[in-house]
Amino acid sequence: MTAFTYRKRVLHAEHVPLPAIAEAVGTPTYVYSSAALRSHFRAVTESFGEHPHLVCYSVKANSTLAVLRLLAEEGSGFDIVSGGELARVKAAGGAPNKTVFAGVGKTAEEMAAALAAGVLFFNVESPEELELLDAVGRAQGRRAPFAIRVNPNVDARTHRYIATGLKTSKFGVPFEEAVGLYSRARKMKGLEAVGLDCHIGSQITLTSPFKAALTKVGGLYQELKAQGHGLRYLDVGGGLGITYTEEKPPSTAEYARTILAAVGATGATLVFEPGRSVVGNAGVLLTRVLFRKKTPARQFVVVDAGMNDLMRPALYDAHHGLQPLVQRRGKAVDVDVVGPVCESTDVLARQRPLVLPRQGELYAFMSAGAYGMSMASTYNSRPRPAEVMVDGSAWRVVRERERVEDLWRGESP
Ligand code: LLP
């Protein structure tokens, strides 16, 4: 769904003109569309129809309480990777018993808190982690429900920084070792095997990697069931890509068909961990032009959002569309849109054709809802942006702009 459209040359989020938000709240500010969030979430869950499934939104993509609350109200579960994310889910009113806990480096304290909270299961990524989880389970006098995350050794054909299913990756347990691990776990009193898990990467724009990985994982699930393990859940991870520029990712319906063809017959309750496909195109980052600067080699446009606010271009060379909040006619020139941070990688849009922006004009970085605010930092002692949620013609600030005093909270001079 496209929630951000021009009306009379002014970019709107649903029915709200974005310049009104920028003037009231300042910039940089993230703005989310509730209608887009709901529609993207519903598209995933509805495309699996009657097939038993649970969508566990991947909190890392955007962990803002208002986003989590909206999705919890839609019936979403959550995929978490830290005690901090669990605390956020609880603070937003999310259900721990619809929450799965992944990650290669859980501490005993994080495991104990999640077990006490009653998470649905832990996705375990190594033999040593399995032993620690067993000890945590025994200490609480209960069996910790777990799935082993297997690494199917499949190339997700995405950016190498966000591919996780190759055998050189730190994630998951080698496919061949899974059977042995489940039989070892059977003898451990603090554990209960309830599922099998895999996740091969992010921003995947083809169905073939999902098909290849899940065909293998579905076969393993059947094998483990045949060996008498009482598995009920098959967690297929997240990773469905979105359109930033020219990408043509599969629709949720095509994605669902691929998954069901590969693992539908296992009888397992399917668990999904979508992040980007739910929030990515439901958010934008508003920014204001500070200066223009022409050098013999480049036309620069300096804006008030930097790599600390939106890290993806600097970290992954990622492309985010850039649109003026008020359209103006003119000849397009190639500009480098850069932030104020003292790093040469603080380029948010490189050689982008734009009608030459003017000082004070407002722009929106598009498709910024996923891995935008959740990866923001205070580098260069820049307070993190405000966040706004739009719903129809209404909008509200859901996170105040960080205050300068917040920057040294807990420090002693
Ligand atoms: N499940 C697991 C185990 C994951 O590691 C991830 C993402 C997801 C689910 C959600 O994947 P999604 O549906 O969002 O693709 N910061 C990078 C993306 C890192 C993805 C990390 N894991 C970026 O900005 O592109």
Automatic annotation (TrEMBL):
Its needed co-factors are: pyridoxal 5'-phosphate
**Domain Orn/DAP/Arg decarboxylase 2 N-terminal, which positions?**
36-279
CDD domains listed in its UniProt record: PLPDE_III_DapDC
Q: Which residues carry this modification: N6-(pyridoxal phosphate)lysine?
A: K60
Entry EC no(s): 4.1.1.20
Please provide the Gene Ontology terms (biological process) for this protein: lysine biosynthetic process via diaminopimelate
Provide the alphabetized UniProt keywords.
Answer: Amino-acid biosynthesis, Decarboxylase, Lyase, Lysine biosynthesis, Pyridoxal phosphate
Q: In which pathway does it act?
A: Amino-acid biosynthesis; L-lysine biosynthesis via DAP pathway; L-lysine from DL-2,6-diaminopimelate: step 1/1
Q: Does the keyword Cell division apply?
A: no
UniProt GO MF annotations: diaminopimelate decarboxylase activity; pyridoxal phosphate binding
Residues the record lists as binding pyridoxal 5'-phosphate: G239, E273, P274, G275, R276, Y371
Query: InterPro entries of this UniProt entry?
Result: Ala_racemase/Decarboxylase_C, DAP_deCOOHase_LysA, De-COase2_C, De-COase2_N, Orn/DAP/Arg_de-COase, PLP-binding_barrel
Q: Where does substrate bind?
A: R276, R312, Y316, E343, Y371
Write down the chemical reaction(s) this protein catalyses.
meso-2,6-diaminopimelate + H(+) = L-lysine + CO2
Please name the top-level EC class of this enzyme.
lyase
- In this chain the Orn/DAP/Arg decarboxylase 2 C-terminal domain maps to 30-369
Q: Which residues form the active site?
A: C342 (proton donor)
Q: Family membership, please give it.
A: Belongs to the Orn/Lys/Arg decarboxylase class-II family. LysA subfamily.
Q: What does this protein do?
A: Specifically catalyzes the decarboxylation of meso-diaminopimelate (meso-DAP) to L-lysine.
Relate the assembly described in the record.
Homodimer.
Q: What's the protein here called?
A: Diaminopimelate decarboxylase
The species this protein belongs to is Cystobacter ferrugineus
